[in-house]
């Protein structure tokens, strides 16, 4: 995953977002967070029960005809509308674009990461809600350009993506301290421009090339210092 | 993309989206059935027997409740004949008696004779329960798609296949 041989179309915002969304659970799980699938599971339960109801309705309609099952069908239609409405509300108000919910290794912090994009703006809008045990949830918002972790050809480069999260969210930074350090070094190196990305375009290209030719977690050695830490993560993710 | 199918929850969600599209369409149809009290509230005209009112391919909206008045002479109705599963759209031209036992005779506007020939063997008239609904609205030409689909069944397979592929491959 980290060394994505797969290429996406860089002009396709949905592709950019989906690839990034998919990479996030891999990363956070690899640095010791335990993912919770409750939101997805509730959505699947609602959706599949609605589908099962429709299938049952089809079955009795096919077998016994319309007139014999009229009232049953009316009830099924009403219930289906309810289930579908609940599903819509769940997606709109409970999930709110959530791509990851997880608890840190020591169980003290819970993260809820939701992402969004705005039409025709190649920016990844991230909202992280960190809940510490017995404290009010704290919200961290940041926006990063997709160009920071996608190269020109459309390869996903894991290191800068992960660094963006590690640097913006202290809870993630603490779980993956090597990433924070790397980014800080990178910033000092790039002649003092504070807002500059940790990775210059040249570095991105280099990383991508290494990823393509070497394949697998070995590609991460191109980034040097954090390779050792990352490699372990890479192995775990595959398991 | 296809690689996302490696994640069972994501695969399940994508399959669910496809299923929900199909089931929502079906339940909307059933909802319309329940509201209009007709097993088949939308039908397509298959013949020219009602010209110039309806042409082949017109889409008809039916209503099968007698809230205000009984189904009466002059109404265009869709009915099923026992033993034949093709619904017929014709006009009621005669009515004897009232209530559910009224005897109804129908005729196509463009036909020379009434429908006694079309009814089942030994049947000389229709009852109210044979009627699927009265025509309350129509949309010209739209139904031609279904005529095409039923005359060339392979088109159905192709369409369903394309729809399925699009939903599975696309996440948006």
Automatic annotation (TrEMBL), chain A:
The chain crosses the membrane at residues 42-60, 72-93. Residues 218-227 have a biased composition (Low complexity). Residues 230-239 have a biased composition (Basic residues). Residues 218-239 are annotated as: Disordered. It comes from the Eukaryota. It is a multi-pass membrane protein. GO terms for biological process: protein targeting to ER; signal peptide processing. GO terms for cellular component: signal peptidase complex. Keywords: Endoplasmic reticulum, Membrane, Transmembrane, Transmembrane helix. The keyword Chloroplast does not apply. The keyword Transmembrane applies. It is found in: Endoplasmic reticulum membrane. It holds the Pfam family SPC25. Belongs to the SPCS2 family. Component of the signal peptidase complex (SPC) which catalyzes the cleavage of N-terminal signal sequences from nascent proteins as they are translocated into the lumen of the endoplasmic reticulum. Enhances the enzymatic activity of SPC and facilitates the interactions between different components of the translocation site. This is Signal peptidase complex subunit 2. It comes from Corynascus novoguineensis.
Automatic annotation (TrEMBL), chain B:
Catalytic component of the signal peptidase complex (SPC) which catalyzes the cleavage of N-terminal signal sequences from nascent proteins as they are translocated into the lumen of the endoplasmic reticulum. Specifically cleaves N-terminal signal peptides that contain a hydrophobic alpha-helix (h-region) shorter than 18-20 amino acids. Its EC number is 3.4.21.89. It is found in: Endoplasmic reticulum membrane. SUPFAM superfamilies: LexA/Signal peptidase. GO terms for biological process: signal peptide processing. Belongs to the peptidase S26B family. Keywords: Endoplasmic reticulum, Hydrolase, Membrane, Protease, Signal-anchor, Transmembrane, Transmembrane helix. It catalyses: Cleavage of hydrophobic, N-terminal signal or leader sequences from secreted and periplasmic proteins. InterPro entries: LexA/Signal_pep-like_sf (IPR036286), Pept_S26A_signal_pept_1_Ser-AS (IPR019756), Peptidase_S26 (IPR019533), Peptidase_S26B (IPR001733). One of its GO terms (cellular component) is signal peptidase complex. Its main location: endoplasmic reticulum. It is a single-pass type II membrane protein. One of its GO terms (molecular function) is serine-type endopeptidase activity. It comes from the Eukaryota. This is Signal peptidase complex catalytic subunit SEC11. Component of the signal peptidase complex (SPC) composed of a catalytic subunit SEC11 and three accessory subunits SPC1, SPC2 and SPC3. The complex induces a local thinning of the ER membrane which is used to measure the length of the signal peptide (SP) h-region of protein substrates. This ensures the selectivity of the complex towards h-regions shorter than 18-20 amino acids. SPC associates with the translocon complex. PANTHER family: SIGNAL PEPTIDASE COMPLEX CATALYTIC SUBUNIT SEC11 (PTHR10806).
